[in-house]
Amino acid sequence: MNDVASSHDGNGAVAVEEPKSAGSSQGTVDAEVFFSRSTADAAARNQLEEKIRRKLKFFFMNPIEKWQAKRKLPYKFAVQLIKIVLVTLQLCLFAHNRYNHVDYTWDNRISFSHLFLLGWDSTREINAYPPGAGPLAIYKADEFYNTLDYAYEGYSNLSNAIGPYSYNDENNNKPDPVFCQFNYKKGIINGFNESYEFNSEVIETCVNFTRNEGELFNSRKYIANAGLNVSFASMVRAELRFSIKTINFRAAGPITPPDCYRFDVKLIFDNEDHDGQMSLILDAEPTKLVCKGAQDYITDNEIDQVLRSILNILVILICSVSLVLCSRAIYRAQLLKELTVKFFQEVRNKSLSLDGRLEFLNAWYIMIIINDILIIMGSAIKEQIERNQFTNDQWNVCSLFLGTGNLLVWFGVLRYLGFFKTYNVVILTLKKAAPKIFRFCCCALIIYAGFTFCGWLILGPYHMKFRSLATTSECLFSLINGDDMFATFSIMSKKSPMLWYFSRVYLYSFISLYIYVVLSLFISVIMDAYDTIKQYYQDGFPKSDLQEFIGEASFEAVSSGLYRTNSSTSLNAVMNSLCCYNFTRSHYSKIGEDQSNVNLM
Questions:
Q1: Residue 214 included in any domain
Q2: What is the pTM of this model?
Q3: Which domain holds residue 263?
């Protein structure tokens, strides 16, 4: 019940006061508290949103904008520039040495062919298309033994060779060459009554070739006296093996010592097909040896090795730094993505789109990590090769790592050119056209595979370009680009008129389909993407929800010093940001704590 207050004035009138509600003052207080809390909550949300927007805006800046924003050295950009210079210098030196190495070993292989192969002709040394001569092969038993005798005499008379060849012996005494044959355990052919005896197990038997001084070597008699039975019907392969040492003076210079090699030579008689033609192949596998030096070679042989080792170590160090920095950047990007996704869900009540999530995955950093790993592995192998720590030839493996890594390093330069709009057209066009190109290539490859298998099966026995599946694919791909068309038509054998006419229909239909239809459509897909990118440059690029949230950073805002607030420029802070795992977590946890506080309000 409300109390009524009354009072008397001087004239005796009674003044009656209006009753007061007990909750009126409390309601006013609650409204003020609610309003103040709502205002504080909105201010906190705005402050949190501004922090995240500023963090995202800085994260997606290029190195030049980041330098303008914080006036800090773009160390990742500097590391990449230094890496390009060192890696390219290393590649040039290694490519020069590898060319000399491959050229030297190839020339020695040609020399061995002249010294040890009966019937070798200089026309076989030139890679010509079509080949100027057929395969080197033997067809008679006498030719087989004469070839062994010729090789043995050439090996015995190394002093007659122009090349500085020596035997694989410390005293230069001639070790016996080894003759090995690989035969089926049982292989007897009775062609007169169409019968045979066959056991597919392959057995290897070997014997050392030797002779007394003053005697001519006769391989037929020696093999028979050694108890070996040469049966060409059961022979799969035969080999004559010996090793030769030599020294290369070609690469020697004021600081570079000569290289020492051992060539493991094999004369291979290939009879796997059993078609009456036994192919004759010479293989010479080089192995780099540790030179013992000479008394007359006066120079500091370690200078060249030290300089190359320093370069290899610098490349490994700079690539390791690049690997750590890019891995750290990818890790921090994922942390920022998690924070942004949580912010969109809890504050903006929406999920971040897939395009927005993919913005945090930097494919350039992944490519840099891959090329860093390849270059580190290649540099380690190169260092071991130059220190003669490998007993076998690893030049090809090393060149594969270094070459692919250097290719990706130079591809990475496109990332920095992409910061300028006029140079970014190629990257954006490829990015825009990639999905359509992938779908288009899937359809085109299905048709291409059908033509490949068809040509291999039907034309293979009668056309040298279709002998294998790989050569068939290479032939068709060259036809798409208009290469060697007339030769492809004219080489087709006329032994089967039906297949000759089929080859015409086959080639005409493939060339017409792929040159006039498939290539035209492929170019149109790319041109459509290019036209779209040009239109984007005029009307603006479509933006994801993340880009719309971030907005664009103007030059005035970047250079205003806003991003330099609350940032330490001390060396200790820089080292912590580079090296400390916990710092990265805490760097983003401050924003996360602010977000949690907003949610609790």
A1: yes
A2: 0.73
A3: 129-299
